[in-house]
Model the fold of this input.
Amino acid sequence: MEKINLKSLTLTQMEEFIRQLGEPVYRAKQIFKWIYKGQTEFEKMTDLPKDLIAKLKDCAYVGKIDIYKKYESEIDETTKYIFVLEDGQMVESVKMKYSFGTTACISSQVGCPMGCAFCASTEGGMVRNLAWWEMADEVLAIEKDSNVKVSRVVVMGSGEPLLNYDELMQLLRILNSPLAFNISYRRLTVSTCGIVPEIIRLAEEGLPITLAVSLHAPNDDIRSSLMPINKRYPILQLLDACKYYIMKTKRRITFEYILISDINDTEQYAYELSNLLKGLLCHVNLIPLNPVKGKKFKKSDNFRVRKFEQILLNNGISATVRREMGSDINAACGQLRRSLFVR
Ligand code: SAH
Done:
């Protein structure tokens, strides 16, 4: 008989499992809590009786993803982890330290199917979705390795989270659960390239998480040339979905806007973007492009970045420039997965 991975069970499923073993249901909660303390050995779950431990060892195990490699940035306190999954696939996650706490940036898929022109994560295509417990384990493994509590999670690593919708929902619930990670929904961010029907579905869940939308262009011509998804869901449809999301959740949306030299970073485009977003409850996160080897795009210079930000601000659009972290270890946005191919 194949052993069951207890980490892949929700608390309700764990209770059902314990019932089937003929044990009192409260044991499920004890095991569940141990798992989210990072414990994977039944013997070390000290409040379980010996006969239950023996039973569990017979039919179950606690799965985990393993650290394959770890890179520490020398310019900031960023650490990139490469994890190897049970089937040998690899994903990357990044730990960032800020004054307000530690943020984990996690991957939602092995690879990515979206094909954005500026991003390394999509170069090898999509291999598979991550299970919710594998995504949660990225956070758990980071906490365990660095002995810190992660206080924010951004689903902004490789992959398109809204194409892995059901697993994403379960992930958000477990991150929020007081028995597991106990992180408030407001400290969870999901970043999407703009899968319109799934944004609408997410709006209807009514979870007060932060939605980040990768916009990257003020018009369809530019956006379609950078992001193939725009041909399917052009900007006006995307913004309609965003408006619906805001109406349903009362939450401000973050728009990510990569600044790419001469492609989308001129003053004219800053005005165009201001007009596009006028009146919307949103914040624009400007990200100077992180260069990806082998791609033609260049980062905007600092002067252009500040000018772009200033035009947005002058037009009443909330905007900041994202601090680039971990670029020396290929841990910055758009650089993930590359190190798995290029050594
Ligand atoms: N698929 C999701 C989440 C992963 S990408 C999404 O598209 O939002 C996370 C963020 O990194 C996105 O905003 C993405 O556009 C951005 N990104 C990708 N390549 C980048 C690069 N080379 N430089 C800076 N940001 C990049």
In short: The chain has twelve helices and 14 strands. The pocket of S-adenosyl-L-homocysteine is lined by residues 114, 116, 118-119, 156, 160, 191-193, 214, 256, 258, 287, 289-290, 292, 333-334 (CB under 6 Å). The radius of gyration is 21 Å.
